[in-house]
Amino acid sequence: MTQLNSTSRKFVLGVDLDGVVADFTAGLRPIAAEWLGVAQESLPTEVSWGFREWQLERAGGYEALHRHAVKERDLFAHLPPMAGAPAALRRLSTHDIRIRIITHRLYIPWFHREAIRQTADWLEQHGIPYWDLCFMRDKAAVGADLYLEDSPNNIAALRAEGHDVIVVGNSTNRDLPGPRAEDWGAIERMVMARLSAAR
């Protein structure tokens, strides 16, 4: 891990949004139920990556639903935050931690401005502090001392390059080895431990 000194830069915490700070599954589920014409309760909350359990191929697949949810329902503006996430990030920001939001939300061609607007508005609405807002697929390219991530593919890619990653646990990544945290209380403790070790 990078060692910081008293005159050096701040400790950089790379934070994914969907599935880490924003409860993407909870926000998408009611929209998916309407899209499919089924009861919301029929869509399981325990899902794998890509929501195969929802059988979205019946109505055009995941990409069609995602496009509809973001463009027509302002999904990124209305996601509920993960329990405890905004307050924990506010507390972490008081410890000279540079919070760098790194998200791959520029998923829909020709809709980037709206995705960015919804994201920035959501962060402000929930009082989430950050220094940098990066829309990147390759999260290692922007750099951080520690990453918070839930995507199995992103975790594998970051670890393959030697980056320190805390797996934010959910049903898509239960088979991945730790370090992992199942809630924001645990995340906050682990980040503070890394910060202490770096100093």
Brief synopsis:
This protein is of the alpha/beta class. It is built from seven helices and six strands.
Q: Topology of this protein?
A:
Blueprint: E1 11-15, H1 24-36, H2 62-73, H3 75-78, H4 85-93, E2 97-103, H5 112-125, E3 132-135, E4 146-149, H6 152-160, E5 165-168, E6 180-181, H7 184-198
Parallel strand pairs: 1-2, 1-4, 2-3, 4-5, 5-6
Helix pairs in contact: 1-2, 4-7
Overview of the molecule:
By secondary structure, the protein is α/β, with parallel strands linked by helices. Helices cover 38% and strands 13% of the residues. The longest helix is centred in the C-terminal third of the chain and has 15 residues, at 184-198. The N and C termini lie close together (10 Å). The mean pLDDT is 92.
- How many runs of DSSP E, i.e. beta strands? 6
Order of helices and strands: EHHHHEHEEHEEH
Q: Which spans of ≥5 residues are poorly predicted at pLDDT below 50? A: none
> Roughly what is the average pLDDT, rounded to an integer?
92
Strand content: 5-15%
User: Major sheet, described briefly?
Assistant: 6 strands, parallel
Judged by helices, strands and strand pairing, the structural class is alpha/beta
Give the overall shape, derived from the CA principal axes. Answer: globular
How helix-rich are the residues, as a percent range?
Answer: 25-40%
Strand order of the largest sheet: 3-2-1-4-5-6
Separation of the first and last Cα atoms: 10 Å
Rg, Cα atoms, Å: 17 Å
Number of helices: 7
